[in-house]
Amino acid sequence: MPAGPSAEEEQLILRAREGSRDAFRCLVERHMKSAYNVAYSFVNDHHGAEEVAQEAFIRVYQSLESFRGDSEFSTWLYRIVTNLSLNRLKQIRRRQEREVSSLTEEHVGSVEYTGAMPGMEMSEHIERALHELPTMQRAVVILRHVDGLSTRQVSRILRCSEGTVKTHLFRGLEKMKKKLDYLQKDR
Fold first, then answer.
1. Given 10, 56, 120, 126, which residue has the most CB atoms within 10 angstroms?
2. pLDDT, position 72
3. CATH 1.10.1740.10 is held by the domain 1-101
């Protein structure tokens, strides 16, 4: 049986549903840092992460009545943050594709990918490799390893089976390992 919210959190949710701004503010204060961290791990931008987290709490407020309590409140919130983050990434990708396609042929020839810079910190190499993964693999690696959620929690957030989570995790970690392999050769 999946765990629901704690008794204290359940009371806050109930009071927030009844219109208590203080109760909702308490929920936001409890979960804002986690929501921001999840968003940041996807969008890799402080301003974007703040926007995603704020939008997530607006969505939570608007749909608090639909929260059934079958899972932890944080799991429900993470699902909202993850979906908003993925939507933001799609918007960014579409905007970048439009910008790239608008370049003239002479500009395209001058654009070069420089690869990893030698002076980068290890965390920067890892972050770059993480953000080069396909969306679903990146989401699973972030939620499972960066945020430390269980396979079951990740499967609920992404609404897929635990087997699918494990497959995306394995493939994502393998791709990251290959992308970071050059760091071992340099040592």
1. 56
2. 87
3. yes
Which residue in the block uniquely carries the two structure tokens 């549903």? 17
Q: How far is CA 132 from the centre of its chain?
A: 14
Q: Write the burial class of residue 167 (CB in 10 Å: 0-12 exposed, 13-18 middle, 19+ buried).
A: middle
Q: Is the dihedral of CA 12, 13, 19, 23 positive or negative?
A: positive
Confidence at 124, pLDDT banded by 50, 70, 90: confident
Task: Judge contact between 76 and 4, C-beta under 8 A.
Answer: no
pLDDT, tens only, 88-103: 888 877 766 654 444 3
- What is the distance between the alpha carbons of residues 97 and 66, in angstroms, rounded to a whole number? 36
- Taking 50 as the threshold, does the pLDDT of residue 170 lie above it? yes
Domain ranges, ordered by start, for the chain: 1-101, 120-187
Is 0.90 surpassed by the pTM of this model? Answer: no
Per CATH, the number for 120-187 is: 1.10.10.10
